[in-house]
Amino acid sequence: MDFKSQILQGIPSLLPPKKNYTTNANHAPKRKDILFLDEKKLALKNALRYFPVAWHAELSKEFANELLSYGRIYMFRFKPKYDIYARPISEYPAKTPQAAALQLMIMNNLDPAVAQHPEELITYGGNGAVFQNWAQYLLTMQYLATMTEEQTLHIYSGHPMGLFPSTKDAPRVVVTNGMMIPNYSKPDDWEKYNALGVTQYGQMTAGSYMYIGPQGIVHGTTITVMNAFRKVLQPNETPSGKIFLTAGLGGMSGAQPKAGNIAGCITICAEVNAAAATKRHTQGWVDVLIDSIDDLVDRTKKAQENKEVVSIAYIGNIVEVWERFYDENIFIHLGSDQTSLHNPWAGGYYPAGISFKESNELMSTNPDAFKQKVQESLKRQVAAINKHTANGTYFFDYGNAFLLEASRAGGDVMAENNIDFKYPSYVQDILGPMCFDYGFGPFRWVCSSGKPEDLQKTDAIALKVMEEIKATAPEEIQQQMQDNITWIREAEQNKLVVGSQARILYADAEGRAKIAEAFNKAIKTGELSAPVVLGRDHHDVSGTDSPFRETSNIYDGSKFTADMAIHNVIGDSFRGATWVSVHNGGGVGWGEVINGGFGMVLDGSTEASKKLKNMLFYDVNNGISRRSWARNKEAIFAIEREMKRTPELKVTVPNLVEEHLLDNLFA
């Protein structure tokens, strides 16, 4: 069968032969054995319902073995034979370009060059899944291949519930991931209900099909590192020869060395998984690979002396580096951590003192002992970081729940009031007040033709639009405009594409709409050869309610609410989004955040032009208005400016209270 026929088939009519477990893939770690006997039987019943009764006797034994061996039922037998990658949109079987674009985005998320654990359908973050199993993938692709413009596919945590009649203006797909009753949203609840096959962790852009490889986080990390150095260096200093020390090279964290190179510093990134570190080195995302702490010390000192711009991957534990660098009196200008601490007990963080292999064994055979070692390691890491910050190192939490889990482990990370952390989140100090409050966030697009020349044309279009906007932009956003003009001008030479022909930049509502409109016109005239898919990271102005990251600079007490993200998804859905998604748990952990996203297909039509203006405007200004109501001065400036430009927009703005009026009222 050819590729299109395999897609249209869905679940195959004949039982395919059993596949051998691949040994050359980067597999997900074995998950916790958390189900009781009756629950394991229920998990099998849940898995077998995808298949004909005649297959159950054979598959029940196989799936039981998967559950016992890996902690999940992935249905490896049903992984398709064809290569999974972002093919040009014309190669997909579909009745609508919107459905074909969705197929392209799904396959890009599962491309082995993009995905962290592709065999287990996990894109990044250790557990950020596109689907729970291969049956869900097969059915979803079949539904997309057959859907019309008057149907909507509803997906429940990876499971395609089905095609429902709707309208041409409705979203083609609506996705939810991990939407639990609040009292059932603890980490072990994910372990249990994911093992049962009834929910999944969609991360931020994995389960919404909008991941574009590490390029997305490269840009955000570049903006963060550049501005972090601006906070600590003198105006006449440059980052060359200055150290940015961090951890994590798997999934999204693998972007850190590339971002450090663009920012112009020495980046040292520790990674315990040799395969992940080697992959980034082979891909050209990191310059130097070192597996000896002594060699790392020598190479770092040389880089400092020569004021190099270089990225170094150390195959080993980050705790060793923090401790050894202190003993060697190596000064670290910037410090952070981007291991997946939203998932600390199942492969997101590996403790010092035991090997990578030993950790993987311990987390499944003795999870309590593994948890203890993780918490001991976190305390050691924090103790070493505190020594460096006492010497002047600027340490920031990268929104991966590092400080949260360190505090739960008993690490010394609390401020004197015993409420706040002693170190800021990067959103509190940098992205919140400097970007999100002004409406700037991670706007992205994918050229569905798969042609590099189309991506180059979109770069040029976006650059022209931003330069025109910058010419009359107020002083408050000149730096943001210039940083992104520089980024897009240099994007191609930095070789950021992995998988689909995609690009990202930070833009506000005006920039996003004008760039998108220019793309739509270029598609209509034939300058671009195929539709363009718009989207964004959920890590944005209004997509995510996350008190320890995206909304950590909300100080009116509402940062633990999730109204903004829910309104964002609902509002985008009837303003023209091609698909919408809402997730529990992206970024900082299950039960810690609600986040939403969208995808929009531009096809050169008048309808697409109307939709992009309406939807992109709301998608950004929903968040600015919430941030303004929280009394964030930058957001107040941004929303008042927008109301002057758009008379139809009327937002409730806060009246600011003089602090002295409140003194002694409750004495």
Automatic annotation (TrEMBL):
Main localization, broad class: cytoplasm
Judged by the first EC level, this protein's enzyme class is: lyase
User: What does the record give as its pathway?
Assistant: Amino-acid degradation; L-histidine degradation into L-glutamate; N-formimidoyl-L-glutamate from L-histidine: step 2/3
- Which positions are annotated as binding NAD(+)? 125-126, 203, 271, 398, 587
**Record function comment:** Catalyzes the conversion of urocanate to 4-imidazolone-5-propionate.
Tell me which family the UniProt entry assigns to this protein. Answer: Belongs to the urocanase family.
**Protein name (database record):** Urocanate hydratase
Organism (species): Cellulophaga lytica (strain ATCC 23178 / DSM 7489 / JCM 8516 / NBRC 14961 / NCIMB 1423 / VKM B-1433 / Cy l20)
